[in-house]
Amino acid sequence: MTELTETMDQAVKVIKDKEGKYLTFSLAGEEYGIGILKIKEIIGMMPITIVPQTPEFVKGVINLRGKVIPVLDLRLRFSIEKSEYTERTCIIVVELKSRAANILIGIVVDSVSEVLNIKAEDIEDTPVFGTRLDTAYILGMAKMEGGVKILLDIDRVLSAKEMAVLDETA
To answer: Per residue in 93-117, pLDDT tens?
Structure first.
């Protein structure tokens, strides 16, 4: 009986750890969220310098106050149809943990929505879609006002190999 209690306590702790403030944004009409502590800033679209021989979802690099930051298009990373950028399109600068150190990257999103305080009881685990679909980058699903917001573990959106490419790009 104590083993079951321990397992349940661990499950509650995992869900409690997901509770907090999230910056929500839109991609192709769907709502996503990233933990606010990962967000460094939100900037409007700016000129992006293309870097040859990078994956398609890596748009290039920007010069943000003298610091070169790689930029990726989250639509393309998630295999969502490419879209023209609008006045609402922006770059969210996030801090990722890489093997070498923490790095800043910019992610292009359709629009930023709001900051939400999401309670643990409103977060469910990621549904199982089958073994061929990798959903490790999804932290959970937040049930909000009749809809669902996909909460991202931004540190897992890129594979170790892709992070190595970004480390070289920056």
So the answer is: 999 877 677 889 999 999 999 999 9
Q: How far apart are CA 41 and CA 103, in angstroms?
A: 14
* Residue for token pair 């979802």: 57
How far apart CA 143 and CA 124 sit, in angstroms, is: 8
Instruction: Specify the fold of 2-169.
Output: OB fold (Dihydrolipoamide Acetyltransferase, E2P) (2.40.50)
pLDDT (tens digit, 9 = 90+) per residue, 57-90? 999 999 999 999 999 999 999 889 999 999 999 9
List the chain domain ranges: 2-169
Structure tokens at 75: 């639509």
The tokens describing 115, both together, are 């900051």
Sign of CA dihedral 150, 23, 58, 47: positive
Q: What is the pTM of this model?
A: 0.82
How many helices and strands in the chain, by DSSP H and E?
Answer: 3, 11
Q: Are 90 and 78 in contact (CB under 8 A)?
A: no
